[in-house]
Amino acid sequence: MMDAADIVASVLVLGIIVVSLLSNVVVLICFMYNPEIRKQVPGLFILNLTFCNLLLSVSNMPLTLIGLITTGHPGGSGFCQIVGFLDTFLTTNSMLTMAALSIDRWVAVVFPLSYHSRIRHRDAVIALGYTWIHSLCFSTVATCRSWVGYNHLYASCTLCSVRAKGAGTQFIIFTVVLHSLTFLLTLIVLCVTYLKVLKVARFHCKRIDVITMQTLVLLVDIHPSVRQKCLDEQKRRRQRATKKISTFIGTFMVCFTPYVITRIVELFIPGPINSHWGVLSKCLAYTKAASDPFVYSLLRHQYRKTCSLLANKVLKRSTFNSSSLRIENNARRSDNSSNATNNVQPPTEKPLGQ
């Protein structure tokens, strides 16, 4: 019997699945529709991240939902091992892809003039090849050693300490190395690159502010309201850069840190961990798949413009279809009325004298 916490968790997972599927499909449609997005190097990283998020949304998340509803093992052992393999592979791959995206942004901001010579499509393919090999190595080792299965703490098919009890120290070393070379490595790369990006952005903003202030001093007759608007725009520009960097790093930490910490604590604490906390930490990790499209794609001008173009095209087509249908119905109605008029026979007059 499901308790209130399981019901809330089930609704949360269902909502994450819906949002993740819709948002990632929209990103994929934008990528396929807009050739400019396909030409850009970051588009390859975003495509790989979208692929991982979509596959996670249709494989792991539904099984977690089933596990919460049935409060038991969803599917057979072999099927659960496949899903556990995907859980390790997709999570690792998405984390490393985020690190690659941050390096790409760092090069674009710090070396803007030589960006296209430093980061090419070939370099992006090599970086993605590394993320796939890195992810495949860890997920394959865990599957071959039978360390993946249904974990009741997270209500999902993933790395399972119960199945690895015989391995002991080996499983502990594997789990620590896995999270060190995925979560910790990605977090360090994100912090170093994005903080450098923020430093460069603030430096450029400061230079612009100096030029703006010098111009304002020369324009002594400028209206105070215009001067204040310029100062407010400077402040907004600085805040915008800080907000973007905080979003990139903050969403990663909020979504993955509780899950990784729970994983590490699980190895060294003999007592049981609250299952509600385990499910919550897993749900937070799932929310990264739903938030990535907004953090990396849909809030950018290019993707918003593509979405608006697609929406206008769909609306125009539906409007055209409805108007065509309306015209056709009116034409059919007028034809019917004209046919009815033609079918009416005029009354015959009797000859006189009869």
TrEMBL record:
It is a multi-pass membrane protein. Keywords: Cell membrane, Disulfide bond, G-protein coupled receptor, Membrane, Receptor, Transducer, Transmembrane, Transmembrane helix. GO terms for cellular component: plasma membrane. It holds the Pfam family 7tm_1. InterPro entries: GPC_Orphan_Receptors (IPR051880), GPCR_Rhodpsn (IPR000276), GPCR_Rhodpsn_7TM (IPR017452). One of its GO terms (molecular function) is G protein-coupled receptor activity. It is found in: Cell membrane. It comes from the Eukaryota. The keyword Cell cycle does not apply. SUPFAM superfamilies: Family A G protein-coupled receptor-like. GO terms for biological process: adenylate cyclase-activating G protein-coupled receptor signaling pathway. The chain crosses the membrane at residues 12-33, 45-69, 127-148, 171-197, 245-265. Signal peptide: none annotated. Residues 326-354 are annotated as: Disordered. Residues 23-296 form the G-protein coupled receptors family 1 profile domain. PANTHER family: G-PROTEIN COUPLED RECEPTOR, G-PROTEIN COUPLED RECEPTOR 26. Orphan receptor. Displays a significant level of constitutive activity. Its effect is mediated by G(s)-alpha protein that stimulate adenylate cyclase, resulting in an elevation of intracellular cAMP. This is G-protein coupled receptor 26. It comes from Haplochromis burtoni (Burton's mouthbrooder). The lineage of its organism: Eukaryota, Metazoa, Chordata, Craniata, Vertebrata.
